[in-house]
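Quick question: what would this complex look like in 3D?
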Amino acid sequence: MATEPRRIIVDRRLVEDAWQPVADDAPLPDGPVIVSRQRWLSGALAGRTEVGARYRPDEDPMEDAERLGELAVIALEFPAFSDGRPLSRARKLRQIAGFHGQIRAVGDVLRDQILYMWRCGFDAFEVRADKSPEDALAAFAEFSVDYQAATPRRIAEPG
Amino acid sequence: MYRYNALDQRIVDERVAQFRDQGRRRLSGELSEDEFRPLRLMNGLYHQRHAYMLRVAIPYGLLSTAQVRMLAHIARTFDRGYGHFTTRQNIQFNWPELPAVPDVLGCLAAVQMHAIQTSGNCVRNISADHLAGVARDEVVDPRPYCEIMRQWSTFHPEFSYLPRKFKLAFTGATTDRAAIKLHDIGYRVRRNDAGEVGFEVWVGGGMGRTPVVGELLHPFLPERDLLSFTESALRVYNELGDRKDKYKARIKILVRRLGVAEFRRLVDADWSATRTPDLDLLPGQVAAMAAHFAPPAWDPWAAEGDVLLAEKARTDRGFRDWLAHNVAAHKAPGYHAVVVSLKAPDAPPGDVTDAQLEALADIADDHAFGEIRSLHTQNLLLPSVASADLFAVWQRLRLVKLATPNVDTLTDQICCPGFDFCSLANAASIPVAAEIAEAFDDLDHLYDLGEIKLKISGCINACGHHHVGHIGILGIDKRGADFYQVMLGGAEGDDASLGRILGPAFARDEVVPAIGRILDAYVDLRGEGERFLDTVRRLGLAPFKERAYGH
């Protein structure tokens, strides 16, 4: 049975998601996959080029700094939208590790927080399944200016 | 004071529009209450016992008369004709309706005010020495740094979902009037031997369930590094603070768990990896900000009014009492800082009516360069009044019951809203304050007792700062009845200390008589000119305990 491709926000636009999240006990499909940090570090994906790793909020990606260049995507999990740890993780990934790949927000990802996530270095957002990703796009337009111009962004602001 | 530029105005205007939409989505059901709660809290909107409560930010306590008149308008139009000043130098309105809140925010934005980050797990309103810019013992005016930090912390993308709330305070004087050691981070602006400006940085102080006096994090942080270093401290806290138990989530618990040396090491490690020149404070930026806080045009001949002032004081006892208690020294000759007491015997501490606010705005325009400030003691201040104007100011304040001559006396109490309003409270606090005001209404008795800081909280969250009262009263619930723990010996400021519990809690009708017996013991035991606090420190709790419990 073919499933409808999931739509996510990437660089402030809705796109069909090219990446497949894979649980630790599921077989590895072909194509771009996002697996847990443990599975990635175990070497099970050696030889693949399109690899993403998923981090829980108590796992600091900076501990794997020397290998982050192997990853195209780092997915940081928000266990609750009110848990701000991934915001600091993303900031450090951009600023200290110089990570140029995609930083993806997964978990309890809601409209009213994604502008902050974006400004900390996230560029992809899996909005929670029961919420409308179209509606969430409006968040980017809610503020046209900010006080923290120094916050790193991966790409230039459009326009 | 600071005046908004176009960017500042746009941010508060866009915030009003954003909150209007969030309120609409809540009312339509698109947002659950759980999803809406942190959003409304970060806009100062609480749900209280009877209704919503809106807490409006007064950045480091500074108000213009236009702002005060708008607060009066809001009190009259959207509330029941009054507002309540808090221990964070903010003002709260107790009765707004949810659909009207965006309109209230719109009114505030029209006078360069907002309710941003007056609640929530984010950087809260920054507090400061209420005598900033006029104090004789000031080394550096802290207000430019407060405004720089206000802007930096407003909607900070990384630090808006911290483990718990985060409070900053600044002083630039040798005497600490901002309780910097009782804040998550407190700063004292100072100069080193070379005359350069920097900050003494204190971390991990606070009250609440686990009261802690802060520890020294940095003895002299160079001015340039204020923002980048603070970001690193907040980042360490954001990543390592407890997120499972809200009662262990403040930075004071993290600092205590790690030890201040290890916390400092982590901050330094992050700082060396993340600091960017973008966050450096440049001398030109600081100077441009300081220009906003240039003193008003004080009259260089104002001291000529001193002779007439002394004559008025000699002949009028009421005026003399008020001068002695409600008027503080000022650095400009012939000027004074006037504390406007919000501790009249018949009103809850910190409450003020729309008519009082408007009268005060008129007085400030006529006699005080249009400047008004809020204090953490739940009073207001006219920071610069000339000697020749003091008598007129006193007479006009008296007409609106704002001249109770009781500042720093027993009845200048700090008191949280307690069970009468707050849904967290375990016990009533305002009725206890009212009973104390009534029992100690004799001014000669009050003046004989001297300086006493009495602080009352209706629950352990300690909004009434009971831990640092010379006398602290904490309301608790014992099997459905209000009981009150009494503690003695607390203090804020340079000699900050936490009060110690006297003994078993008193029932509602026993607590004020017990305070009376404690004060009688003080009168019997004090040395010549010795303050209550110093007598408690010298003798310990035992003699007071004996008298309070009558055995």
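Answer marked as accepted. Chain B has a mean pLDDT of 95.
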